[in-house]
Amino acid sequence: MGHPEALEPPDPHARPERPEPPEHTDRATIPPEADMSPVPGSGAGTPSHSVLKSLLGAWALAACSPDETAAVEDHLGECAPCAEEALRLRDAVGLLHPGRDLDLDPLLRFRVLENCLGRRPARIPVPDWATPYDAEAARLDALLRDFGESEWNAPVRLRWFDGIDPAQRKTTVAGVIGHLLTVDGLVAMALGLDDPLGPNAPISPTERTERFWRAESQLATDEVHGPWRDQSHALVRTVSFAGRGVSELSVSYGEFSLPLRDSLLDRAFECWLHADDIAGAVAYPYAPPRGSHLRQMIDLAARQLPAVLANRRRHGLASPAKHLVAAGSPGRSLHLEVEGAGGGDWYIALDSPAAVGSPDHSVAQVALDGVEFCKLVAGHVSPKEAAAGQDGDREAINEVLFAAASLGRL
Amino acid sequence: MAKDTPLRWDRKMQQRLARGEAAALGELYDKFASLVHMLAHRVLNDEGAADLVTREVFGYIWENPDAYDPKQGSLRSWVAKLTNSQALHRLRLAEAAAIATGESSADELEQKVRRAAAAARADYIVSSMPAPLRAALELAYFQRRDYRQTAADLGVTEDEARRRLRLGLQLLSSAHTRPLEGSSPPGYGRSL
User: Fold this and answer.
1) Does A366 contact B at CB distance below 8 Å?
2) Which of A111, A116, A181 is the best residue to mutate to test the B interface, defined by the most B CB atoms within 10 Å of its own CB?
3) What is the annotated signal peptide range for this record (chain B) (predicted)?
4) Which of A160, A175, A353, A187 has the alpha carbon at shortest distance from A268?
5) Which of the listed residues A68, A93, A118 is the one where a domain comes to its end?
């Protein structure tokens, strides 16, 4: 540490272990004259009592030059009040303690809030359908909390499936948060909050993201982290106050729209998968959402599949409908069996969004893990590579897997 | 809320909690959970016990938002104080059980509680001391800057840097001598 080891110097082992900064080694090379001269009242000789006393804090922290350290330690042998204070301050250094950077278990948030609300029910609760978004935003925020400059600038490859082929874009961790900020902004606008992109911004999620990335070529962390988190808190707060009817409020994405409750669930899904992208980029582990939240996300995708199939059919990407039935009647279905936490059984109507999926009309079965299904939906796994058990009508299976993958977008 | 001063944020948060707004509780957790857990872990040195203290502290705040008096200091320092007293309370319970089974002696308990109380008080002092003092200690201790570098980093004179380091340590040293303030706020320790 570069100071003489006289009079039991401050304990270097009490310090957190980290590499010595290079500047530190320069300390010993400062010439004694230069070293002592800035100390007021010091002539060529020994510094005065008051100067030495003022150095006691720095001495206890081993933050003096070697000459100052030596001068202080000489003085301590002669001056009882200073020696007493020096001892006290050095003991105080032992109480300094590095904050633990350990990540809290995300489940702890759920358990703590559940306990609170059990003890005193909320007068203004967060609606059930908003809790997955609340939980996922909190998890991502906790991941970002200890990020430094290098993590924020870490490259991230965003992958999705454009309907036919895998697609990808390169950005940074800050760019991903900017993407979440701008697309969450669509929900904010629907609720009457300010658009983070300002007035007259485009509606399409991709165009919004591109505009943000263009405008902020060198993203500073405080330009995205704070605004993203403030907006996510504001969304949860606003839907809590908005009352029941708000869950059906239409949120426009340009080419399509979703009722608010589904839209916020979709944002929770995106938040998780992009948090997973970020965690992967900085080599952190990142767990999937709670089972009950995962189940709602899977359900949202399963509900959207018949309409996506119909859309792909119109574009010649799926084969013509086989057995059209009256609206509201059970039709030819695919049995989607999702395993693991958040799993369950879904019956996807194959021929028309107007038909109802039914176990009695099942022509094929696909079985896969919940997280695998979500990665397929996000376009992180291609339909051909998805680890899915398959049984029955090959064509139906293929078309549903491609439809699921094309739900993904930037 | 983004542009609020800390004091205004504290008051607003208190009002929102008092109103029974669950979203405010979530925001409170997001802001202070890592502080609460860290302080509790420092005293108890046990992950599960720190989780429980975290649960109890937020439960208490949610049930008693009016117990916070903004005139007495920041919400952060109040939360830190509640955490320390709850963690020490739990440490005493655990140690009392150990004495009952003969695993520990009363002397050992007293020593352990005193050590933990000093550590808790030190954490409390650091988390609520004026930011300029905290910043100086942070640079000199954790970043291993000497006081001249500390002065340059903070944009203050070397005199001032020496003064802050000494004053910060003087404040901290009181953790050894003074008992933890409010170690059992009225109706707190027992009601949990």
Assistant:
1) no
2) A116
3) none
4) A187
5) A93
